[in-house]
Amino acid sequence: MDHRDNLRSYLQDTPAASSAAEVRVATAVSKLLTVLAGERKSDLAEEARSDVYLDVLDDVPCWAVEAGVRAWFKHDCGSDERGKAHNYVFAPDPGTLRKIALREVYAIGARIGTVQRVLDAREYVDCTKQLEAGRAAMAGLNRALKTGDLDAARALTFEAAVKLGSDPEEPTAPAREAAE
Hints:
The protein is mainly alpha-helical. The chain has 9 helices and no strands.
C-alpha cells in the first residue's frame, strides 16, 4: 500500500500543485528551447512561447516533463500520431511534448493499477471437498428417493446422504427385491 501511495504522490507533483514543480518544468522547457531554438525571436515572443508550454504542461508531473525532454534530446520519442518520425532538429510543440511526457505518466498509472490488483486480490479458497460432499449428498438423496420410502428420505441427514452417496453403487431396495 505504501508503494502504491508513493506512486500516486508522484502523479501529484505538477506545476498546478507545487511551485517547485513549476520551476522544474520551466527549467526543462528552457533547456529545450535554448538548445533547439531555431531562429531567435524577440524576448516577448520567447516569453509567450514559454508561457504556452507551461500552460499546456500545467497538469503533467514535472518528472515526466523532464523525462520527455531527455527523450527528445536522445531522439528516443518514437513517431508522431501519423506514424512519421519526429524532427529532432527543432523543439517539439507544446502538445507533442505533453504527449511524450504523458507516456511516462501512463507507465506509472499502469504500475499503480497492477499494485492495486494485487492489493484487491482475494485468497484462493479450495472448496473441492465441500463440493464433492454436496454432490455425494445429492446422489445419496436420489438413491433414497428411488427406494420409494419418502419417510426415510425425509429423515435423511446431510452426513447420512453423503455416506449413502459415497458408497459404491449398492442396489436400492426395489432393485434387491426384483433380483430376489
